């Protein structure tokens, strides 16, 4: 398609290389903007969730507060506790209490260092063996957060209680906070159990099956959050408007990745200025500061006055958040990117693990089949009078399929097992899709895959198997054949 509007022709590209066309996707993919979509707050929450420090920091703060409050409670009630209770509390003197608390504090900092070391080694292994983009999966692990919080909280609590223990040699009345020392002992036992569980969790976490499952689950959650089910009736006019030649281009404020779009802020800005706003990049796209990321134009024939124009562009730029890395907050293609990275990494000469690549492609196939049933067209936001105010770019099935297939096809071209799994991926997707454009995307990828197969030096059996699978893909994509599951 030849673009005839030079003012907006620079608005091209996305997370997956492609040329933006107007209208940017099939009509009938609109919704009324009533779904619960995360904005910049959701992106900030996702960023905090993938950091190692928030939960341990909260744990230390609570431990210090408890270490200050509980000894004061001990001063009031220790002398009046019944014998049936005190027999289960710490019964040693001040010297013994100090020794216990010092031992707990010293051991906890050692165990915490060991836990941090194991976590760092796991992160390094995941980055080198699988993909650097899987690190967020590890750093967002709540069990790791809780383990570090417990260890550091026990250390901080023991030190805080230690300062309240007094002996007669100090020139004061001897004081041993029995409940506080007993709780420190119980926390120490809990850390021992947690350390064993942490090692078992780490051994499970580092397995490729676990990582791929978690990536798949995260991607499905993002799709549930960001995409409506295809076939839901759209609200109002569903055809995206064409931007005029004199549309105002809004440049990216800084370079990075488009982390998210505050849909509510964009809608309010468009309504207040009586304008239409189009964001041409979807979350996960690479942005360069100063290059166009959005366009806006007045809905009425009259243009903007200078004040309205300046305010609108500023509000649009503010509603588009840019980060230094891709996240799963609004990026529906990020899960496929991670799965493809694992497959490509496994096919590298240094790893040479086609079995892992085939496993990753299985998850990609399942995820693509899920996404094929979603509304992947442009998202349209309407005002109260059912007029289109905001058009948001989103990847379509063609882009997502190319993301999942192209690189594994290139780097696994010499492995029949990888090409066989790619053929099966297309066949499984062919059974799922029902729209002509989606079926065309499957058959286009089949043609490229057949070209790759023809260029390889395979034996007759391998070629026959791949050829038969190719025929099955065509039959599945056209809906003319349904396989017998027991024969597959």
UniProtKB/TrEMBL annotation:
InterPro entries: DUF2254_membrane
Keyword Transmembrane belongs to the record: yes
Segments of this protein annotated with the region Disordered: 223-242
Transmembrane segment boundaries: 52-70, 143-162, 182-203
Keyword hit for Glycoprotein: no
UniProt keyword annotations, A-Z: Membrane, Transmembrane, Transmembrane helix
One Pfam family of this chain: DUF2254
Low complexity composition-biased segments: 233-242
Domain of life: Bacteria
Protein name, entry field: DUF2254 domain-containing protein
Species of the source: Pseudonocardia hydrocarbonoxydans
